[in-house]
Each structure stands twice: as C-alpha cells, then as structure tokens.
Design brief:
The protein is an all-alpha fold. It contains three helices and no strands. The longest helix has 23 residues. Pfam families: LtrA.
C-alpha cells in the first residue's frame, strides 16, 4: 500500500499561477535591462555602477 506521502513524492509538482507570474516578471525585467545595455552600452546605468564600485 502507498501512503499519501509516497504519492506526493512520486507525483510531478506543478507550478502555481503566482510562480508563473513571478517568472514572467523576472524575464521581463532582465529583458528590459538587456535592451537598455544594448542600446546604450555606456549609458547612465553602467556609469552609476562604476562610480559606486
């Protein structure tokens, strides 16, 4: 006989809607950062990062 815990360990885990939304937000933020760095490689974002180091 299988217990409930055994079934939980063998069944695949599905992502919740909140996890999927968070992943989408992170992908959008990284995408925006990459676009900003591509269009202005010496823009204010990198200059301020160099000044704070």
């Amino acid at each position: 006989m299988f217990s409930v815990r055994d079934r939980q360990m063998t069944s695949p885990r599905h992502a919740t809607w909140l996890e999927l939304f968070f992943d989408l937000v992170v992908v959008a933020a990284v995408s925006q950062c990459l676009v900003a760095m591509h269009t202005e490689p010496e823009g204010p974002l990198l200059v301020s990062a160099r000044l704070s180091s």
